[in-house]
Design goal:
Elements lengths: L4 H5 L8 E2 L3 E2 L1 E2 L10 H14 L9 H21 L7 E4 L2 H16 L5 E5 L8 H10 L2 E5 L9 H8 L5 E5 L11 H10 L3 E5 L11 H4 L3 E5 L10 E5 L1 H6 L10 E5 L2 E4 L13 H17 L1 H19 L5 E4 L11 E5 L4 H10 L2 E2 L1 E3 L4 H7 L4 E4 L7 H18 L3
Parallel strand pairs: 3-15, 5-6, 5-7, 7-8, 8-9
Antiparallel strand pairs: 1-2, 4-10, 9-10, 11-12, 13-14, 14-17, 16-17
Helix pairs in contact: 2-10, 3-10, 4-5, 11-14, 12-14
């Protein structure tokens, strides 16, 4: 099964836009945030036009409809990732909140003085800072798994770190800079044999890959909606129910309680325990619509398209004089995004020239400064892809890069 990209593009109104003096938009920033198909936009409009009400609080018809849609969204997420129980799905704002939830609710209760945590050099700040904060609070230590020259994780170094008996390993499923697809099932097996739990940042993987939390074998898996064609302000944390049940709440307030008295509070069972206050109702419903839409395309076809576009981008970028790509083949399972630098030109300047051609990429450290240090650069330009990305879009990128070389005399 292959994607009909021409048909898919018709589902995205924003792709019909022109920018910068009438240039057709070439959107190569989907790792930052994806565009949204009509199937998601329509569901959001229908909710606000016909069903808008708060959930779990009202017994009137609108409240019942909204609650059913919200809990139905939880079931959709659970089905999409192969969760055994929809109670294992906690709605959060984004992958950042998912990881912070684990660091606070599980970490504060289980990590103590002298304990060890294992991180990798390719992590997004969202999978670094919460663990650094935990280590500072609890007196723990952090060990770092280095990135090899080809952009893969050094699993021999991971094995050495595991011999020190860490409590937890935190790792990205797909690198947001290098496009590296990490072998999560193998990492989870290694970590569990050493007595460590595994938390996975799935923000970049969830839009591209079929996810089975059972097959991956991790203990926690977080992802964000806005990168998988859903609205902003919504994401999900999956966790093993036996772990969630023992974790204290992350936030306090309405909805997360069983009973409140002047003498104290007893907490609701998961997932309500971790969803204090009025949640992002329409956003959760929108994320479920996005997942149903992705499932209708076929996640295997989505992954194959991503790999094909990434390979074509690497092939064309290799033709550009003076351009260096970070995280090159032969890393198995190389996906997007693709990060690069043009010799002698700052990434922000490259991005500005590309923007003049209607080509949208991201430039900067991509919230991965330890990885930038490892690569020996302050910033890169990054092209990232979606189900709507065509080979013609990559060709437009190359044409715009040729202009950047001319403007700056690079290469």
């Amino acid at each position: 099964m292959t994607l009909d990209v021409a048909r898919i593009r018709k589902d995205f109104p924003i792709l019909e836009r022109t920018v910068r003096d009438g240039q057709p938009l070439v959107y190569l920033d989907s790792a930052n945030t994806s565009q949204k198909p009509r199937q998601v936009l329509d569901v959001l409009a229908e909710f606000y036009e016909r069903h808008n009400a708060n959930i779990h609080r009202a017994t009137h018809q609108l409240g019942e409809e909204a609650t059913a849609a919200y809990e139905g969204a939880r079931a959709t997420v659970a089905d999409h990732i192969g969760a055994a129980d929809r109670r294992e799905v906690v709605f959060v704002r984004n992958a950042t909140e998912a990881l912070n939830l684990v660091a606070r609710a599980w970490g504060d209760a289980n990590v103590g003085e002298g304990d060890r945590l294992v991180l990798t050099e390719m992590e997004h700040h969202s999978n670094i800072v919460p663990w650094q904060q935990l280590a500072e609070r609890r007196g723990a230590e952090i060990d770092w798994v280095p990135v090899a020259g080809d952009g893969s994780l050094d699993l021999d170094e991971l094995e050495r770190a595991l011999r020190r008996g860490p409590k937890l390993v935190a790792v990205a499923h797909v690198s947001n800079v290098l496009g590296t697809l990490n072998p999560i099932a193998e990492i989870a097996r290694m970590a569990h044999e050493a007595g460590a739990l595994v938390v996975v940042d799935g923000a970049q993987a969830a839009p591209k890959l079929a996810i089975s939390v059972a097959e991956l074998g991790a203990d926690f898996y977080g992802f964000t909606g806005h990168k998988l064609y859903a609205p902003t302000g919504i994401g999900a944390l999956w966790g093993r129910f036996d772990l969630l049940r023992e974790m204290p709440p992350f936030l306090g307030g309405g909805s997360m309680i069983r009973k409140v008295t002047t003498a104290g509070t007893t907490y609701a069972d998961p997932p309500a325990r971790f969803e204090a206050g009025t949640p992002a109702i329409s956003q959760a419903i929108g994320m479920a619509a996005a997942l149903r839409w992705l499932d209708s395309l076929g996640m295997d076809a989505v992954a194959a398209h991503e790999a094909d576009i990434a390979a074509y981008a690497l092939e064309r970028l290799a033709e550009v004089p003076g351009l260096r790509v970070f995280g090159s083949p032969p890393v198995p399972g190389r996906l997007g995004p693709v990060s690069f630098e043009l010799a002698g030109v700052h990434a922000h300047d490259v991005s500005e020239i590309l923007d003049r051609h209607g080509v949208a990429v991201r430039a900067g450290h991509h919230c991965a400064q330890p990885l930038m240090d490892r690569l020996g650069v302050a910033a890169t330009a990054r092209a990232s892809f979606g189900v709507y990305t065509t080979r013609e879009a990559i060709d437009r990128l190359i044409e715009a890069l040729d202009d950047a070389r001319r403007v700056f005399g690079a290469g």
